[in-house]
Amino acid sequence: MTHTRRESGRSQIAVRQLLDGVVVARIANDGPLMRSVPERYSSALHLAGSSEWTSGRTRWSSAPGTISIKVPGEVSVERAREGRAEFQVVLFDTALVDDARAALGRPIETRRDHAIDSDPRARPLAELHRWLLTSDEGSPVFEDAVCSALSAFVDVTSAPRGATIGPSAFSVAVARARAMLDERIAETIALDELAAHARLDKFHLCRAFRDEVGLPPHAYVTHRRVSLAQELLARGVSQAEVATSVGFFDQSQLHRHFKRILGMTPGAFARARRVEDHPAWRTV
Q1: What backbone torsions phi and psi does residue 60 show, to the nearest 5 degrees?
Q2: I need a surface site. Which of 37, 47, 84, 189 has the fewest CB within 10 A?
Q3: Per residue in 247-266, pLDDT tens?
Q4: 3-state secondary structure 138-204
């Protein structure tokens, strides 16, 4: 089991590696409003503070007790906050969720609620969050709790059985464009090429992309690159290698975008991710 902690200004994060493919983090933040494009599936239990969020075209709120979910590549922007934000996040590796989705035969649904605490299907997720706050993960029921929560996560992010989802033509074009950007994240793709691939003129594409995703294409790429950089830095990859691997021109460009988006430098992030030998959570 690994434990790490980092602090940046008025933000604090404590992290535990619980099982292969499952990480839990506790986060406290009364600094700048947050924006993220995650690389993993996650569920958050909001413990303190109230916030207003946008995810694509969806607006939602969080308050103590709210349980929310995110999927990889989804832009979440905190628009307003009242009080110090504190929450617990359970992160599932993509391969783990994809395997569960395949085993359960449930394709992902792109349109869904983000705050799911009122959904009865989310009860196992709520139980896992509460259990992590009060119990020892060494308990023999821990893996069962994680398995049930993972099944619930798949359920609440899937289309109803037998349902047919008919996306709009703009949504289809945005999905094509987004898939191209994700596949070629380290490359510079001209807007005309992206529009041709999406089969939509660039003016409508830019507007539809912002409406659907929450950021214009270029900003989306930058945020995805920073998210990928976090994953690589956490594995001990050098900053220079990270910069070229994710598509930044050089280390200084990585530094500039990383600090602008996350509020800390790549070096500070990398140092904070080194494993610390302590047996329990530190206070956040």
Answers
A1: -150, 165
A2: 84
A3: 999 999 999 999 888 878 89
A4: CCCCHHHHHHHHHHHHHHHCECCCCCCCCCCHHHHHHHHHHHHHHHCCCCCCCHHHHHHHHCCCHHH
Q: Which domain holds residue 191?
A: 169-272
- How many Cα atoms sit within 13 Å of 133 on the Cβ side? 18
Tell me, yes or no, whether 231 and 150 share the same domain: no
Q: What angle do CA 238, 19, 40 make, to 5 degrees?
A: 55
Answer for the pair 284, 14: CB distance below 8 angstroms, yes or no: yes
- Using alpha carbons, select from 68, 61, 112 the residue that is nearest to residue 90: 68
The model's pTM:
0.69
- CATH code for the domain of 14: 2.60.120.10
Quick one: 76 and 207 in the same domain? Answer: no
Residue 138 lies in a domain: yes
Asked if the structure places residue 83 within a domain, the reply is yes
Which conformational region is residue 85 in: left (phi greater than 0), alpha (psi within -120 to 50 degrees), or beta? beta
Looking at residue 33, the DSSP 8-state letter turns out to be P
